[in-house]
User: What shape does this take?
Amino acid sequence: MTSAREIARVVDEAHRGHWSTVLASTVRLTRDLDLAEDCTQDAFVQALKTWPDGIPDNQAGWLTTVARRLALDRLRRETTLWRKLPLLIEDPISPGEVEQPTDPLRLVFTCCHPALARDSQVALTLRLICGLTTREVAAGLLISEATAAARITRAKKKIAAAGIPYRIPADEELPERLDVVLTVVQLVYTAGHVAAGPELTRADLTGRALELAGLLVRLMPAEPEPQALLGLLQMTQARGDARVSEDGELVLLADQDRSRWDVRLLAEGVSRATTALQQGQGQGHGRFALQAAVSGLHVTASSWDETDWHQVVRMYDAMLISWPSPIVALNRAAAHSLVPGADLIAVLAELDALSNEVALKSYAYLSAARADVLARLGRKEAAVQAYDEAIGLTVNGAEQRFLRRRRAALTED
Amino acid sequence: MAQYMFLLYDTEEFYDNITAEDWQATMKLHNAFAEAVEAAGASLFGGAALEKSTTASTVRQASGEPLVTDGPFIETKEALGGFYLVEAKDLDQALALAKLCPAGNVEVRPVMDTGEGSTPPA
Assistant: This one.
């Protein structure tokens, strides 16, 4: 007998590691997301009861078999479903072959189907692929629990009623479907990276996003964009430790102790970004390749001041063509302000123009960027006001404390 | 297989100055669409072109006595100009076929199962 606490730890670990595999394999059997989710949850409950007598060697296999058996039992009991069962089942359980390594990817492509609203795609991915509760989805996306629940329910209903298939798209469909999936994976990473509340990161979300990006690279080794996304996430991940100071405060890239970066992960990220840029040569770079290029310029510079800001601005200019978004324009303006000898009045005009963008109305980074430029222009009062705006707009505790420190530094002398 | 209704929305200006040749060409496109559906292993269960929205009348039943008014149910720049009823493998096949449909905008709606033993939409 293993202690209850130890079992709880093992099952919790299995939940993080195998949730999406078990669920995805059960969905392949049932074609019913709600049923598959219930049975997957029940399989983990059974694990808590049964594993004290012996933890199975193949935990994922054990959980999958239990979840699929529970699902079949439920389907047999429900006579109307039983009538339809021959239509629902693609491949009945055959011993020895319960899992397919591509199952989680099928589930990702289902969650990210272009016929679903973007908001729902992200919420559904967090719920089904990352195994988050509705409350956690809400916290990760900075929305209310009721909104998160509504988005997930709506998306599941549409998948069932409209007949959204559970499969990896055919090769010729992949490129058009890929962009949505990459965007959602990036959003999952971001949700983990800037988690709401006092914690700055949620390792399970960032880890899952890295895993998914890796799966996409394996599925499409010749496509530059999955390579670029994985490289981008690896470079961001490599800087993770340096992002928070010893007393738990947020440290901006500009002030990070570069010796604390994970050199091995950084090298892998840079190498992937380079591969993506080479693969995309001549066909116009995608937005993930360009983002990875910006990140690469940052991490290969010896210091913040040594960063090739001209080149960074050029990358954002290219991004604005393929991906015209106010956020990209904001990043461009911020990079522009750092080009040696930049005309700060012109940058301020760029930022002021962006404040009319609806998408940036409640975006703390715009106010923070304005505050920084105003401070450098010596317009203290306006800078303080902009910091106040930014502080009011962020819900992340570490970010708030960071902005307060910047604001305080302005009024000190 | 599931059934999907393709609702074809277009601006109606097209009809105002159409020549006999353009009309024939449009009809050919629709015939080609019907062939593409069959070629994809899906089937066409029905379909029709509709007279212009200016010929529409609406019976409003929302409150009390049915009220007959002129015009389509909602005024939009684009009008419902026709429909197809397609049986397809899944939404992906239905959407792929809708892309071949000669119309400006195609709304794809799954047909509800109202047969014996059916349950209300969740």
Remarks:
- The mean pLDDT of chain B is 86.
